Amino acid sequence: MSDPNTEHFVAPIDDAVVEVDALKLDQKKSNLWLDAWRDLRRRPLFYAALAMVTLVTVMALWPTLFTEVAPNSDCQLANSNGAAAAGHPMGFTFQGCDVYARVVWGARTSLAVGILVVAITAVIGIPMGAIAGFFGGKVDSILSRIGDIFFSIPYFLAAVVVMSVLASMRSVWTIALAIGGFAWASLARILRAEVLQVKNSDYVMASEAVGRSRMSTLLRHVLPNSLTPVIVTLTISLGAAIVAEATLSFLGIGLGDTIMSWGNDISKAQTSIRTSPMALVWPSLALTLTVLAFIVLGELIRDALDPKARARR
Amino acid sequence: MTNEPLTTDITQQANVVVEEAHDVDPNKPLVEIRDLEIGFETQGGIVHALKGVSFDIYPGETVAIVGESGSGKSTTAHGIINLLPDNGTITGGQVLFQGKDLAHAKQSELYKVRGRDIGFVPQDPMSNLNPVWSVGFQVREAIKANGIATDKRDVQARAVQVLKEAGLADAERRMAQYPHQFSGGMRQRVLIGIGLAANPKLLIADEPTSALDVTVQRVILDHLESLTRERNTALLLITHDLGLAAERATKLIVMYQGKIVEAGPSLKILQDPQHPYTKRLIASAPSLASRRISGTQVDHVGGPEAGVDVAELASKHGHGAVEAASKPVIEVKDLTKVYSIRKGGFKSEPLIAVDKISFSIPKGTTLALVGESGSGKTTAAKMVLGLEKPTSGEIIVAGTQLAGISRKDLFDVRRKMQPVFQDPYGSLDPQRSIGAIIGEPLRVHKVGDDHSRADRVKELLEQVSLPTEVAKRYPNELSGGQRQRVAIARALALKPEIVVLDEAVSALDVLVQAQILQLLADLQSELDLTYLFITHDLAVVRVVADEIAVMEQGKIVESGTADKIFSGAETEYTQKLLEAIPGSGIDWSKLG
Fold first, then answer.
1. Is the CB of B515 less than 8 angstroms away from the CB of A21?
2. What local confidence, expressed as pLDDT, does residue B292 receive?
3. A39, A182, A274, A276: least surrounded by Cβ within 10 Å?
């Protein structure tokens, strides 16, 4: 069918026809991590979370920068449940100890437990997930079933049992092992799913065609490209581990009485909640803010590492 | 694929809609697009995808919009029915459909027009049918939404009719099936059926066949053509394939960077292109070139050439490598690969992916292994590369037998043979710099020290015409064509004798494709490389191959020199493939 109305139209010939496939490099370099960092830097919430995390870290490393008062030895029963006084901004506990000093010194325990749990989770979960996902077949079946067994036991319940059994040797290490030893399975699952996706990429095949061994391909190409969800999960689980320690300590099966911990303090403060509620409020606030900071940080990193989520904002 | 003739009495089965040609004034445009501008909001501000596009579509006319990716051709198609992504808006101009401006119409008015007056066939048949609903349900849904029929029995009858018209012979039975039980071509037929369900006045088809094999593509397009002609439906065809557009459309619109650069009668534009961009596009389209491209002794240190006239190059240089009948670098004998497909429970069924194929490639030449999807060509390539173990047969690469080879010997063979894969976005590790990617083979094979490796990376970047500062950058900063150059540079790092190119140019735009093909030809003559070129695209084969082996269902059905195959294919299958190349019906020799 010919159309009488069709004319031959030619656009004015200008210089707009550029070179085919011209190389347009931005001044700024760009890759996943750089772009994520640029995104994070623009977000006020990131600075708030980072400030809180830094504060807690400094408190944990050098508590004497914040307080001269010894949290245990300077307790005087005369001060029992005392209100805030000069040099003691948060008042006193039932035992007459300085609440502010205890909050500062408690950061060390919470952070230590959090970091240890994350380390244990990563050390067990990353190899389990990566190897299961990458090698597949029987290796995957065996590793994934082991993971499923641990996954089916709620890690908190397991930690309660372990801590009850190990009542005589409660320390930061035992509590971290009890939590981390059962929490790694979900990390392994997440990583395995990611590895399954990444290992089908052409660059993995290209790496093998070059002659790189399977294990070396896993470490060089597959793992670095699968770490995004791992980093996010680990950041959030650091917060969750601190909560778990506090909960166990609150229940009386966490850390021993001699160890300074926000969970222990909250537990002890409940006896005198009517007379001096602040002794309970301060350590609770410290706990909440710390955990919130880690979780917010994890969520922000997740968004920053996902280009699609970045575009949506 | 069902090729049964359509029953002619289909209109009698459902008397809901009376099929007849649209009664409209043929001299008044159906759609008038006036200065249409569309912008997309992105992080870096508003991107203007369309910068004032104007054209008309007359009743019953077939118009094709041709352009490269990013030219705005799909945006135009979506803009007509005002169906843009969330971040896209019409920022200016009008879309007058029978006098009514769709660009400024209310949603409720648009609902009435979409489907009923303007049908739409989307690009990807694999993702545009909902996998959890049966095909019949999705057709019925479209019929109900357009208010063609409301009574349950009428809807059902119309759905059967729609699918029969779309070319599904046993429509009643297949309606209860789900999309995964349909082949790509069948799904596209269903989508065309849905698009035409309400007997619209205009059908917009956005790259309707680019995901399909050429032979299937031809059948679908023939069918689409006859359906629209019968009903006097106007067709707007969006495509990247110039040959296809010229063959199917009366009017051609060439778009470039959000603007129309040339428009007019298809044949006139092909014969006498006026705009430099159109000229370049026509010169680069491989289906229009008649002979193989040869390497030119160009200085690679300069920037990428602005455009490569494939036909001109082919006529200027004869190819010299074939004459030196040296002994083969790759020899494949009775190569077979059988997979076992699990059939539920403990049963499994053998699937012969590659069936006793044999070929050999002399040094410095190119063998193209051609076939449609599922023909076993990629499996064959993977076996040659040592990425899959053959079930039986022999592969001899540069004198080394691959069967039963030790790990260490395979490692050594890999120095002599390197791959380039199809997807330029997937074949480079996004977390490593370009320099690290190109240098990886050198590090793995412990060639040289850090300093000499960096020098080699520079040299390779120059060979593929990329500036050396790219080495510090990351893959996401490069375009598809540039990434493919990087992949070629990586393949050349170890100075191999053989490069296996698995659909290495299939994902690229025509102009970029021509550039890469030229680069490959230059490198071949410069470094005396041997290519095993895997592709589905016979048009590309024509410009790269010395020898061709055509695969169908795991077997090589025909092989011979490129000239012989293109001048007189012996088997019916090869002839069918050749005829299906878009634009093959046009006598190019008569064109300018």
1. yes
2. 72
3. A274
pLDDT reported for residue B8:
41
Q: Return the minimum-mean-pLDDT range out of A68-72, A145-149, A165-169, B408-412.
A: A68-72
CB contact under 8 A, A211 and B411: yes
pLDDT of residue B22: 61
Mutate to test the interface with B, among A14, A20, A33 (most CBs of B within 10 A): A20
Strand partners, A104: none
Contact A26 B418 (CB under 8 A): no
- The token pair that represents B454 in the structure block: 């960096």
Taking a C-beta distance cutoff of 8 angstroms, is the pair A187, A155 a contact?
no
Q: What are phi and psi of B406, to 5 degrees?
A: -75, 160
Backbone φ, ψ for residue A217 (5° rounding): -60, -40
Higher-confidence residue: A307 or A57? A57
- Which residues in chain A have their CB less than 8 angstroms from residue B306's CB? 19-20
CA nearest B10: which of B160, B173, B230?
A: B160
| pLDDT for residue A3 is more than 50 | no
**Contact between chains at A19 and B427 (C-beta distance less than 8 A):** no
Around Cβ B587, how many Cβ atoms within 10 Å? 7
Determine contact: A5 vs chain B, CB below 8 A.
yes
Residues of chain B contacting residue A31, judged by C-beta atoms under 8 Å apart: 430-431, 433, 474, 476
CB burial readout B462-489, b (16+ within 10 A) else e: bbbbbeeebbebbbebbbbbbbbbbbbb
Cross-chain Cβ contact B511/A10 below 8 Å: no
Nearest to B34 by CA among B50, B48, B54: B54
Is the distance from CB of B218 to CB of B580 less than 8 angstroms? yes
**The predicted structure's pLDDT at residue B577:** 87
Task: For residue B423, list chain A residues with Cβ-Cβ distance below 8 A.
Answer: 202
Closest approach of chain B CAs to the CA of A51, in angstroms?
27
Q: What is the ipTM of this complex?
A: 0.78
What's the pLDDT score for residue B65?
A: 95
The tokens for A56 are 């807690």
A10 and B CB contact within 8 Å:
yes
Handedness of CA A170, A174, A180, A181 (dihedral sign): negative
Q: Which residues contact B550 (CB under 8 A, 6 or more apart)?
A: B370, B371, B556, B557, B558, B559, B565, B571, B573, B574, B577
User: Among B41, B416, B440, B462, which would you mutate to test the A interface (most chain A Cβ atoms within 10 Å of its Cβ)?
Assistant: B440
What is the pLDDT, as a whole number, of residue A308? 65
The number of beta carbons lying within 10 Å of the beta carbon of residue A5 is 13
Contact list in A for residue B482 (CB cut-off 8 A) is 21, 23
| Among the partner residues A20, A32, A310, nearest to B306 by beta-carbon distance | A20
Q: How far apart are CA A79 and CA A81, in angstroms?
A: 6
Q: Which tokens go with A28?
A: 């700024």
Q: Name the residue among B507, B504, B538 with its Cα closest to residue B519.
A: B504
- Across the interface, which of A22, A32, A209 has its CB nearest the CB of B419? A209
| Distance in angstroms (rounded) separating the CA atoms of residues B553 and B183 | 16
Q: Is B579 helix (H, G, I), strand (E, B) or coil?
A: helix
Q: Tell whether the model's pLDDT for residue A43 goes beyond 70.
A: yes
Give the pLDDT confidence score for residue B323 in this predicted structure.
43
Low-confidence ranges of chain B (pLDDT < 50): 1-20, 298-307, 311, 313-324, 590, 592
Per-residue pLDDT, A14 = 65
Among A128-132, A302-306, B514-518, name the most confident range: A128-132
Confidence at residue B303, expressed as pLDDT on a 0 to 100 scale? 37
Task: Using the predicted structure, report yes or no on whether residue A5 has a pLDDT greater than 60.
Answer: no
pLDDT one-digit tens code per residue, A135-160: 988 999 999 999 999 989 888 888 88
Query: For testing the chain A interface, which of B461, B470, B477, B486 should be mutated: the one with the most A CBs within 10 Å?
Result: B477
